[in-house]
Amino acid sequence: MADPTQTGSLQIRNVSKFFGQFRAVNDICLDIRNGEFLTLLGPSGSGKTTLLMMIAGFLDISKGEIALDGASISDVPAEKRNFGMVFQGYALFPHMTVRDNVGYALSVRKRPADEIRNRVDEMLELVQLQEFADRKPGQLSGGQQQRVALARALCFAPPVLLLDEPLGALDKKLRVEVQEQLKDIHRRVGTTFIYVTHDQEEALSMSDRIVIMRDGAIEQVGTPKELYERPINQFTASFLGKSNFIHQNGKVFALRPEKIDLMPGNENAEARMRGAIRNITYFGSMQRIIVDTDEGAEIEVDIDVWRNASDLAEGLRVDLLWKDSAAVELQTG
Amino acid sequence: MHDKQFKKEMLAESAQAFRAGRMDRRTFLALCGASGVAMNAVLAGDAQAAADHVVMWNWGGQSEECHGSAIGEAFTAKTGKGLKFDTSGPLEGKIKEMVDSGNVTADVADADLFNAVSLGPTGHLEPIDYSVVSKEKTLPGYALEYGVSIILYGYAFVYDTEAYGDNPPQNWADFFDTEKFPGTRALYKWANGSLEAALMADGVAGSDLYPLDMDRALNKIQSIKDDSLYWGSGSEVHSMVVNNEVSMAIIWQNRGRNIENDTDGQYKLVNNQAMAMPGAYIVPKGNPAGAAVMEFIATAQDIPAQLALLDCLGMTPSNPEAFGQIPEDQQPYAITSAMNIDKIVYNDPEWWGKNGGDAVNAFLEAIS
Amino acid sequence: MQALNRHIHPGWLIIAPLMLMVVALYLGPILNILWLSVTDPEPGFSNYAKLTEGDALIRIVWTTVRICIITTLFSVIFGYSIAYAMVHCHQRQKTYMLTLLLVSFWISILVRTFAWLMLLGRKGLVNVTLEDIGLIAEPVAFMRNELGVLIGMVHYMIPYAVLPLLVSMQSIDQRVMDASRNLGASGSQTFWRVYLPMTMPGLVASTLLVFILSLGFYVTPAVLGGGKVLMVAEYISVQLLVTLKWGTAAMLAAIMLIGVLVMLWIMSRFMKLSTVFGGAAR
Questions:
Q1: What is the CATH number of the domain that holds A294?
Q2: Domain range holding A302?
Q3: Which of B77, B134, B119 has its CA nearest to residue B303?
Q4: What membrane topology term does the record carry (chain C) (predicted)?
């Protein structure tokens, strides 16, 4: 179904967006590969949604260029870009049935009726909403609406699918479920997904690659594992997962709490730091322990509960240990 | 229009509050002042109008002032009773409604004589007491059981001297002749006067008008329909004329002077074949002041009152004794002055009282 | 009492006196009108029979309906454009526009009517200007005819048309329009297939409001129509106040009432009226 001349790779070249004096997006370069699941992750105001809207064509590009498979699309209006999009809040057409919503893109392209019907059936099957075809969006649950939005955006087989915080309105339990479905659908349709979120767990669990953004610029790009294991600066390290920051010899290291081992007493020769437990918080599968070190720092340690759970108590003196590879040196300044 | 209604209601309510002692005098006076109304005028609107005054129901504006100075002062001097006003306009439907509702608040309505014919027999009016009111102080035939004509007004016409300077229209035949006198006409929308003018234009003598031949009159009216506009109020025809929208207009003759002034003489009044309309005082059944109102009506018939109404409102006396005393400068605009009295025709209130409703409807249907 | 509570929510009992008052004050006069139309001047349907005697009444009703339809059409089209502009312009301009709109509610209808005469009358500003620059030899008859009535009425009705549309348009999520464009629809496709259907409740509310208000109009038609454009409302007032044919007046009022109810009923066949009157769209 996909147009073979469009493979769905995007090139973003020195793209900026100014709103008056304010630079919402500042000189971004990014290559998005065909068929990958790429997540733009950042706090609100980081420019991720602005960048997505420029890709979709809803916002003009102030400077730079966006290209699809090498050909610039900067001047192509939104309705001619053929990118699917799942909006925040879904933006379904409330006056149309699910079937008409999903078939809209084909219907405005004046495709024959039976082609539309078949394709819509195919899409409804993909999102498992066959029996809801004749309902109006108002009669569906949030999760079902989200799937209609997805089916509608995929129905015309776009080379690129843009998703703007599509799970924001769902409750946590449902969100995890839908994440898996999304990932599955991505595998099956093979379309390039560009996914905007501020939720790091969503980003980690679904993405092939994550782009971490701050203040309109890219902080770091990489696979979830790369970003988690090798953050290049304090922002990335703290935005994606939790991290302790250790200052030694004018250098700064990021140290994930679960990579620290903790031994009661003060006799361990390999101890990197020593201190006393200030606080223990129990999370079921693990417990989070805050240690005040003798150097005056505060270190968080995540310990699996099955290990020495009973002998830890607040005020207990402990040694902290970790492997060399666990501490990642960060860029500073 | 609503503003006025609101003000009136607010004041009527506060008048009651004031009487009942719920509002102090100063607040009440302030409210009256804010609304630009004299306190006694407000108190008059109350249903409990005592017999120390009579309430006149008219259209307000200038006629409120003029009735006060022309009749009210003499009436007070003679009887010690005051005169107050309800200015909401005594249309036939409103009189009927007031009497039917049993809440009669007016003593005398400044209306048309034909209203006396239509509302009298249905029990909505008090008969006129001709032991107090004089049948001789009005024109013959205009002193009826339920109403007496106090003044006359007339349906005459004005024409545009710039359009017809050398050969001006002189009568209703000319008014209806759009070939000889091209241009737009303005006629009265509620049929009155317009029907009679049409018949005279069609050759009916002024003395043979009644009963009106409706078909003939409406045919004549429709013959110039494409060149006609129809007005419903004095201010409307005034604006049609001064804005030069029409070349000739049937108007109330007492407006003639204003129009001649406002157009610097471009429009001129023609009184030939003007129709005299008897304006009358009628008394709603069960009026609060009772028989005292007859004294008021009699006062209005006196020559000084008659001449003062002419001077103030331009309404012509209906008391024949006053005709000779019409001042020189008022003569062209007074329908019964020596200058005009031989040229005019007289409205028949009996015919209008009995057939007016159907005539108005037939007229409206013909012009719309 | 317990048995009663099971069927009627106790909340209704609290508002029952008010409800009864509203019903009495509202339905009472309406029933009185219907009653009058079959009893005055004598019992029977003689008033309704008048509709078939001669074409005059039918013509007045038809004139009224025709003028109201045209007025509604133009008011709603202009109102739609204005509401659209208000929703999509900057907040500052929107405030200005809303102020102008609301101010126009407070200008007396007579003032507005005479203002049109000054502007578009025979010796009005427009005609004089056109004559002066030589575009026309004779004044154009804008006023004192049906055109004049329509101009005056449309002008008066536009603010009423705008308000329901404004509410309806403001509640629309702009992302829905973006979604339509994103799916490949052109501007006009988006308008006809998404925007218009989504503003339909507002459009219907606005149409009903303007049409029903227009039916009761008579100051503007009386003045701007030069007396020749007779609408039902004016005719009713003449029958009430001048000719005292209250039965005829009541009959015409009843016809108008029934006409409006029939119109609402027909519309309810095509759409849920509750959405028009602010209910939930489901």
A1: 2.40.50.100
A2: 248-322
A3: B134
A4: Multi-pass membrane protein
Contact C189 A108 (CB under 8 A): yes
- Does A331 map to a domain? no
**Domains of chain B and any CATH numbers:** 2-152+278-331 (3.40.190.10), 153-277+344-367 (3.40.190.10)
CA neighbor of C166 nearest in space, from C281, C89, C272, C262 = C89
Phi, psi of C51 (to 5 degrees): -60, -30
pLDDT of residue B22: 55
The closest CB to that of B230, out of C122, C227, C245, belongs to C227
Which CATH architecture group holds C32-39+46-276? Orthogonal Bundle (1.10)
Share above pLDDT 90 across residues of chain A, in percent, rounded to a whole number: 69
Give pLDDT tens digits for B316-340: 999 999 999 999 988 989 999 989 9
The number of domains in chain A is: 2
What lies within 8 Å, CB to CB, of B23 at 6+ separation is B14, B17
Q: Counting one residue from B and one from C, how many pairs have CB atoms under 8 Å apart?
A: 75
Q: Indicate the residue among A234, A269, A289 that finishes a domain.
A: A234
Model pTM above 0.90: no
A43 plus A180 within the same structural domain: yes
Helical residues (DSSP H) of B202-336, grouped into ranges: 214-223, 234-242, 256-262, 292-301, 303-313, 320-323
pLDDT per residue as tens digits for the range A153-208: 999 999 999 999 998 878 888 888 889 989 999 999 989 999 999 999 899 999 99
Whether the ipTM is more than 0.85: the answer is no
- What is the count of residue pairs from A and C with beta carbons less than 8 Å apart? 73
Chains C and A touch (3+ CB pairs under 8 A): yes
Torsion of CA A212, A213, A218, A219, to 10 degrees: -60
Give the integer Cα–Cα distance in Å for C280 and A80.
35
Asked if residue B117 lies in contact with residue B353, where contact means CB atoms within 8 angstroms, the answer is yes
Q: How far is C179 from chain A (nearest CA, A)?
A: 7
Q: Chain B closest CA to C192's CA: distance in Å?
A: 40
Q: Tell me whether C108 touches chain B (CB under 8 Å).
A: yes
Residue C92 at interface with chain A, using a CB cutoff of 8 Å: no
